[in-house]
Amino acid sequence: MPRSPFLESVRTEIRTRHYSLRTEKSYLYWVRQFILFNDKKHPTSMGNPEIERFLNHLAVNRCVSSATQNQALCAIIFVYRHVVNKDIEDLKYRFAKKPRRLPTVLNQQEVSSILNHLDSKYWIITALLYGCGLRISEALSLRIKDVDLVSQNLFIYNGKGRKDRYTLLPRGLNTKIESQIARVRELHNEDLMEGFGSTSVPKSLHRKFGSAMKDFTWQYLFPSSSRCVHPYDGYVCRHHLHHSAFSKQLREAVLASGVQKRVAAHTFRHAFATELLRTGSDIRTVQDILGHSDIRTTEIYTHIIGDKRAGTISPFDRL
Known about the structure:
Number of domains: 2
Strand order of the largest sheet: 1-2-3
CATH superfamily of the largest domain: Intergrase catalytic core
Number of helices: 13
CATH architecture of the largest domain: Orthogonal Bundle
Strand content: under 5%
Mean pLDDT: 85
Number of strands: 5
Distance between the termini: 73 Å
Structural class: mainly alpha
């Protein structure tokens, strides 16, 4: 099916600015929806009225969340600013205010119960989320070279905000991780025997490093079960496990465990931070481990454990 020249120009602008592949997909989706909603008019012939009608349609008819509304608005503003070369001014629509919510936190018994219903690599991934405070994208993007079982460190490359950092690695995971590394080596050897063996890397890096991308240390700790074609550079490679595969296993484990909370991958990161603060870790240290730019993001966990209440006791407990 032929591609739209305009959407291809949007794709080019996104890649020129080194946005992530997920951002590229979401922006192209919303631009396409915007054009289809307005009877396939070209964006150069549209302006504020069409944008406002589309955003109102998302809020009223599709009942999307505030985050989704903001994402759609960002995509449209990007197109007009960088592709159409037209600034959108006096738009009768502002970024939707997100509700301030405290994160769901699991206690240690609930974490153990969920872990008991996971096995193999999914157990290790969940253990890393809780034991190291990782985001799911960071855990799945780990490579063999990022794991240091001697100094008990994990190197997080290009985390949120394009920041690198180190975080602690629990010694209790060493045996499991060593077994996972052995499985990755076996899979990698099979790829090499079949004439493949390259891992996926950011665009153009494959041309820079060439055959080094077949080195074992560059392989993902949690590789995908199948090979794929790199979306930018077109070579056959093995990417990391998709987050949807982990989400499916986690959902089944939560149901089987009987934990009556809404649990997602990020919930274990919240539990990690809360447990560190509850047991006396310095908030600056926790901020550094989590990779937060602003300490106010870390301070939200002090609300969960009650540090902001200055030892206040409920009147009911005084009865």
